[in-house]
Predict the structure.
Amino acid sequence: MSEPVSALRRARYAGFVTVEEAGLQGMVQIRGDLSSDAFTSAVSDAAGVPMPGLREASLDGRNGLLWMSPDELMLLCPYPEADRAMARLQATLSDTHHLALNVSDARAMFTLQGNGVRDVLAKLAPVDMAPDAFRPGMLRRTRLAQVAAAFWLRSDTQAEVICFRSVAPYMMELLSTAARPGSAVGLHGG
Amino acid sequence: MLTLKCPYCGVQAEETELHAGGEAHLTRFGPDSSDDDFETYLFTRENPKGVHFERWRHSHGCGKWFHAARCTMTLEVFGTYPAQTTEPPQDIRDAITAKRPGWTWREFS
Ligand SMILES: [Zn+2]
C-alpha cells in the first residue's frame, strides 16, 4: 500500500500572513435534498457537527460541514476517517436519494494565519472581506485569481482555503505572493 | 462591472464569478421538429437595446443556472430569478414596468 501524501507536503510561506498547505484532510462531497430531514440528520450524524446554514461552515476541530450549494455539502474529517464517514452515511441513506464521494485525494487545503488574512483573500477573490460583511463561520465558494476555491474564517486571524489538488502549486504561489512582506494593503487591519 | 444576485445562494456575484448563458426562455426544438422550428430555435435571437432576459450560471460559486432581467443599454439590473420557469415571474415584470413603462420582449410585456 502506498503512503498517502498531501499535494505540497505542508509547504509553508511566512509573509505578513503565514500560508501553509494543511496536509492530508478528509473531504467527502455529498449531494442530496437539503430540505429532507432524513438526509440532513444522516449527514449531520456522519460529520459530528450541526448542519450549516446557507453559505456557512459548521466546524468542530478537524470535523465539519461546508454549505457548497443548495444541494451540496462538503464533509470534513481527519483523513483516515473519510471512508468510514462515507460508509456510515451510505448505510443510513440506503433508501434516500443521495451521492457521496471521497474526494480527499482530489482536493488541497491551505491555512492562512495572521492579522492580514482578510487582506490576502480580498486581493484574490471578488468578495467583500469587510469584518461586518464576512464573519467567522461564513463560507464563500468563489475564485481566487484564476482558479475555483472555497474559503471560510475560523477566526478574524485564521482562514482556510480549499481547491482542486491539480491547482495546489498555483494556489500556494498565489497566496504567498499576496502575503509577501510589505504588500499588506491594510484595508481590513493587519 | 455587472453584478448579479444569485437567487440560489444569495451572493452578489460580480461578472467574473459568472458565466453568460445566452438568451432566456427559449423553446427547444430537437429531433422530429420541423426544419423551420429547429432553425428558429438555433439561430433566431433577440438583440434588444433595452430590456433583455438572459441565462447566467454562477460558475465560480454554487454552480447553479439562473435568469436575469436587465437593460442592455444602461446595464441596470431589474432582477434575477431561478431557472425553474418558462417565463419571467410577475414581480420581475412589475419591476421592469416601474422603470420601463410599456416594455415588450418577445411575447412578454
Ligand atoms: Zn449561487
Summary: The pocket of zinc ion is lined by residues B 6, 8-9, 11, 58, 61-62, 64 (CB under 6 Å). The two ends of chain B are 27 Å apart (CA to CA).
